[in-house]
User: Which sequence fits this backbone?
């Protein structure tokens, strides 16, 4: 059946007068193909696109409630200006012209007095507009844009792999050959599905795999299904990875021809990891040496095999070398650029016109953190971003220079930045703050002007998935308009025009068209097709080598050495742990891990939506029954969890699937049903406990979000 006939059949099935538009769900950044049913300008139904290679008609709990999101009565409906002091909770409705004029005037005045770098921009993880935030900043002249995950989630892997391999590898979930061994490391994608590796194609690949290995402190659904579950101490992933390298090299389980021809620095690596035996790793990781050996052997001997890794490995201040160690497991076993293994993308979307060329070398050098963290903010970054702790210090103390304005697009900063109390103190020092979002949040309540953002069915955008690889290119099209809500991308364009900037003034669709030139499509043509699935070409390196200085995968990294960082991966204990801080452990004897995903929410989002909220009314912290019994805590009790930075409470969930020495707390909790302007943000927010103070990862500036020391007790 051809495309036109198929669309006609779908429209007839949907009902007379109903249009069925292809789009892509962005309620997280997973990228499931969708069909939007629209009648008389109203979105009446959302269903999965059965043709999409990323989800094949399926939607997760979040995607199924899209209509509830779009028409939620608590949506921000029009621009508002704060009345009274910051955090007063008092607002006046204003027009878009008033809002944009005031924002333009205030920003131009601040730029004239303090310099463009005194204006910072922030956004949330993986949102549709993320590249537009830095684009507007570059046009404005400020290098200071940030996203809470940039040093803590995904981009440490991206930047490290680009330096090591010349590109970022993704799992071959949409090819014809299923992986026979999958190593899930610090990742539970059946509960999330990030960056185009949706929970659906992960489940499909899991069903086809002969062997599964899981590295996780918690007995997740994946761990229960695994051949081997390595229950490591949180924060010791680097030690475990190095010990597995020791086994693969020491027992000659590596692919000798591939390693000889296509890697650089193998001999140096082999000598280096000889010290990291499984027996050395066992007391550090809490994983038995024989189990470490078994996992390394199983991964090395089963072909094809792939590593499915998550952001847990990026939550301690030694994440870059952890990533380096883990990335070498598929490399040494020749699971790179093979069907069913790790593959480099087809890059179906052209490079986004970020306008970074508009920043002078002097402006780039003034990016907060650029002088120290070159893989986050400087020459080693694929997309340079400011270092958040340094940015917050500039807000509070004016050091190294003052930051006076902060524009936040799609981020609930008080729940998603580490050390929330210090974040609050920093935001309260600002001269001017703007927040664009779908709902009023504790963060938006601190702004001077709040803007009503469009949800994903209300805007035009494209998605190249998996992220970076862009093997599948999907069109996201505006299906409806709700209230006075406006797409973030359109807000940037209108501000740039009002401020008479030299860039970021083109219509949004013109930019999207420019990115699709390589496919020979316009944005309109892409939305009519829904998506383009580009067949993967394997072993592309055989033609041109790897895009590194040596033309090979650099086990010994020449780029990192050039920047002054260690060229070989090494072990480093987290700065706050039972081994590195025994004096702290005497008061806070338990190890805290955070960040486990809840399948009904995306980070801090969607807690307003009743149909998913009923599945998780309250936050839950996992604790072993023996630990709970010693403290008089019963299942379901409210339980204090406390670190040196603060305390919060969550419901105790007793489980034998966690070590008695470990506590797992859920992240990003707030309570939109409670009274504003705080909405319960100080009640159960795990970022009251996390640490954004030094030491940081020397290359990436990463701080400690897990493997922290804590204590717990029954809450009254």
Assistant:
């Amino acid at each position: 059946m051809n495309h036109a006939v198929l669309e006609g059949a779908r429209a007839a099935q949907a009902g007379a007068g109903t249009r069925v538009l292809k789009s892509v769900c962005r309620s997280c950044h997973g990228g499931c193909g969708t069909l939007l049913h629209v009648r008389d300008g109203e979105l009446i139904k959302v269903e999965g696109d059965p043709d999409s290679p990323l989800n094949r008609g399926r939607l997760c709990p979040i995607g199924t409630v899209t209509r509830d999101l779009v028409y939620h009565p608590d949506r921000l409906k029009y621009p508002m200006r704060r009345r009274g002091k910051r955090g007063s909770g008092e607002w006046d409705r204003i027009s878009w012209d008033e809002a944009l004029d005031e924002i333009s005037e205030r920003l131009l005045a601040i730029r004239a007095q303090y310099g463009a770098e005194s204006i910072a921009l922030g956004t949330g993880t993986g949102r549709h507009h993320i590249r537009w935030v830095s684009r507007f900043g570059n046009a404005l002249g400020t290098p200071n844009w940030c996203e809470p995950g940039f040093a803590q989630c995904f981009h440490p892997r991206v930047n490290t792999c680009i330096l090591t391999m010349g590109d970022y590898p993704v799992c071959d979930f949409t090819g014809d050959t299923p992986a026979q061994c999958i190593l899930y490391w610090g990742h539970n994608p059946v509960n999330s599905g990030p960056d185009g590796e949706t929970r659906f194609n992960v489940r499909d690949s899991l069903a086809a795999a002969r062997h599964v290995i899981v590295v996780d402190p918690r007995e997740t659904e994946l761990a229960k299904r695994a051949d081997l579950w390595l229950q490591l101490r949180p924060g010791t992933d680097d030690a475990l990875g190095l010990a597995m390298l020791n086994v693969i090299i020491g027992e000659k389980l590596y692919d000798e021809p591939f390693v000889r021809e296509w890697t650089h620095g193998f001999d140096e690596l082999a000598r280096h990891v000889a010290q990291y035996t499984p027996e050395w790793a066992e007391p550090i990781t809490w994983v038995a040496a024989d189990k470490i050996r078994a996992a390394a052997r199983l991964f090395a001997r089963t072909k094809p095999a792939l590593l499915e890794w998550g952001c847990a490995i990026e939550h301690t201040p030694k994440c870059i070398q952890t990533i380096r160690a883990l990335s070498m497991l598929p490399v040494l076993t020749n699971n790179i650029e093979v069907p069913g293994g790790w593959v480099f993308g087809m890059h179906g979307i052209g490079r986004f016109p970020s306008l970074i060329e508009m920043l002078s070398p002097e402006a780039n050098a003034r990016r907060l953190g650029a002088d120290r963290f070159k893989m986050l903010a400087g020459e080693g970054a694929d997309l340079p971003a400011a270092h958040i702790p340094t940015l917050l210090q500039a807000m509070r103390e004016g050091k190294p220079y003052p930051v006076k304005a902060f524009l936040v697009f799609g981020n609930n900063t008080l729940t998603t930045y580490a050390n929330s109390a210090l974040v609050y103190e920093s935001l309260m020092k600002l001269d001017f703050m703007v927040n664009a979002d779908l709902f009023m949040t504790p963060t938006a309540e601190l702004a001077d002007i709040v803007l009503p953002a469009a949800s994903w069915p209300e805007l035009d955008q494209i998605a190249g998935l998996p992220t970076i690889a862009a093997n599948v290119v999907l069109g996201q099209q505006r299906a409806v308009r709700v209230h006075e809500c406006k797409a973030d991308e359109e807000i940037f364009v209108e501000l740039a025009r009002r401020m008479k900037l030299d860039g970021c003034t083109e219509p949004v669709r013109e930019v999207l068209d420019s990115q699709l030139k390589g496919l020979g499509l316009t944005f309109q043509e892409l939305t009519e097709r829904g998506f383009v699935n580009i067949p993967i070409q394997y072993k592309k390196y055989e033609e041109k080598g790897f895009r590194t200085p040596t033309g090979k995968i650099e086990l010994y990294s020449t780029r990192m050495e050039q920047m002054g960082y260690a060229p070989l991966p090494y072990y480093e204990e987290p700065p706050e742990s039972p081994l590195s801080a025994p004096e702290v452990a005497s008061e806070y004897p338990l190890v805290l891990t955070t960040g486990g995903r809840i399948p009904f929410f995306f980070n801090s989002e969607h807690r307003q939506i009743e149909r998913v909220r009923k599945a998780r009314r309250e936050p839950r912290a996992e604790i072993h029954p023996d630990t709970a019994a010693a403290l008089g805590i019963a299942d379901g009790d409210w339980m204090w969890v406390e670190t040196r930075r603060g305390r919060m409470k969550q419901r105790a969930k007793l489980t034998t699937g966690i070590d008695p020495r470990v506590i797992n707390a859920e992240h990003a909790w707030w309570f939109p049903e409670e009274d504003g302007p705080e909405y319960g943000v100080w009640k159960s927010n795990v970022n009251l406990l996390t640490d954004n103070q030094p030491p940081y990862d020397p290359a990436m500036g990463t701080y400690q979000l897990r493997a922290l020391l804590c204590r717990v007790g029954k809450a009254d």
Summary: The chain has three domains: 80-153+348-533, 168-344, 582-714. Residues 1-9 have pLDDT under 50 and may be disordered. Residues 48 and 57 are 4 Å apart (CA to CA). The two ends are 64 Å apart (CA to CA).
